Amino acid sequence: MNSTLEQTLLSAIRTIPDYPKPGILFRDITTLLGNARAFRRAVDELVHPYSGTGVSKIAGIEARGFILGGAMAHQLSAGFVPIRKKGKLPHTTVRVAYSLEYGVDEMEMHTDAVQPGEKVILVDDLIATGGTAEGAVKLLRQMGAEIVAACFVIDLPDLGGRKKLEALGVNVRTLIAFEGH
Ligand code: AMP
After folding, report:
1. Predicted model pTM
2. Dihedral of CA 12/132/106/140: which sign?
3. Which of the chain's termini has less CB crowding within 10 Å, N or C?
4. 58 near 64, Cβ under 8 Å?
């Protein structure tokens, strides 16, 4: 059966109620990653608009953004840049605080990971409130990167993350959406 991209992705993502805490519907992409066809289709679709556009780095947000970002980087013949929780990167870093649902945390990137003017795509599995991606956008811009787009497999539009990034002038690409939290 030649199912649509949306059907393929929706049926490959597992929803876990009340994880990691009551009231959250956790959208688990490990089932998508473990499904060869769904994984390939997701990555193909994420990179599709950007082949031949001179993107030279994919920046992935720890940890699921690393898996998608590595595959995207390979497909676009680009390099990969990890954006990590504080204290994990060994060389000189830039650091930014970002808001979580409750409280704040910090993320880092190596200062030499991107050059000023370099075209970069940011990727994570899911955008909810947009706090995490906003932090990553700030780091990349601080180092002078040109953010071509921020890409996510899943959008939770009710939480407003896409609008938050668009208000920062970032072009946002998502493949599927779930209502609610
Ligand atoms: P936010 O900063 O609110 O946009 O949250 C995005 C980050 O939290 C991403 O790294 C997601 O992987 C993770 N996340 C937030 N909400 C969910 C959810 N409902 N299911 C799975 N992951 C989530």
Report:
1. 0.97
2. positive
3. N
4. no
